[in-house]
Specification:
Blueprint (H helix, E strand, L loop, with lengths): L6 H8 L14 H12 L10 E6 L2 H10 L4 H5 L2 E8 L1 H9 L5 H7 L9 H24 L2 E6 L6 H7 L6 E11 L18
Antiparallel strand pairs: 1-2, 2-4, 3-4
Length: 198
């Protein structure tokens, strides 16, 4: 029995990481909006969206990220970069604003005030952020825009925190470089394990 083919699967099959971008073709404002909209439509635990997306357009910031992420010059050369961060800070801010962190609230509601996220909170937020990143990558691919995930954004956290001016409880989880494929780009599709092992 053959696999059902459709536009979404074709897009997934077509996509491959690119580290060289065609700098003669500009990503339009409408395309950027579409990519960010797709990211925002990603599933989210409890619809809490415990992540944020940092839109990196400044060349100086991309240059610094290229150095901090294990000296990868393609980050600097990418026309656009998005950093997906675990963002529990916005929830703490909301809890504080709503008065949920006071002793009075804890007494009245019977719920303990929890001003700090737990490991489970971090895991859920990280999951949400990565799902949003994949939505963005697939939307970009559907528009003919290539992408490359940079896992090294997790390293050198203290430097990234300073560079991106991140508050407490905000951790970069994924960096995605985006730009049009360079002419002649060879789509490398590495062999995956057989689906019978899934």
């Amino acid at each position: 029995m053959g696999m059902t083919r459709n536009a979404v699967l074709d897009c997934i099959e077509r996509r491959s990481s690119t580290r060289q971008f065609d700098l003669t073709v500009e990503i339009t404002a409408e395309q950027r909006e579409a990519v960010l909209h797709a990211a925002s439509r990603a599933p989210s635990a409890g619809a809490m969206m415990m992540y944020s997306i940092i839109d990196i357009r400044e060349q100086a910031t991309r240059d610094r990220l290229a150095v901090l992420c294990d000296n990868q010059p393609m980050i600097s050369k990418a026309p656009w970069a998005l950093v997906f961060v675990v963002d529990y800070c916005k929830w703490i801010d909301l809890f504080e604003h709503a008065g949920c962190l006071t002793e009075e609230f804890a007494t009245e509601s019977g719920c303990a005030a929890r001003p700090h996220p737990g490991l489970g909170d971090f895991g859920i937020a990280a999951q949400d952020a990565v799902i949003a990143a994949q939505n963005a990558v697939l939307m970009a691919e559907s528009l003919g825009i290539g992408s490359c995930y940079i896992g090294d954004i997790l390293e050198n956290y203290e430097f990234h925190k300073e560079l991106l001016d991140l508050p407490d409880y905000v951790v970069p989880i994924s960096l995605v470089c985006l730009g049009y494929y360079k002419e002649g780009h060879k789509r490398v599709h590495r062999k995956r394990f057989d689906q019978k092992y899934v």
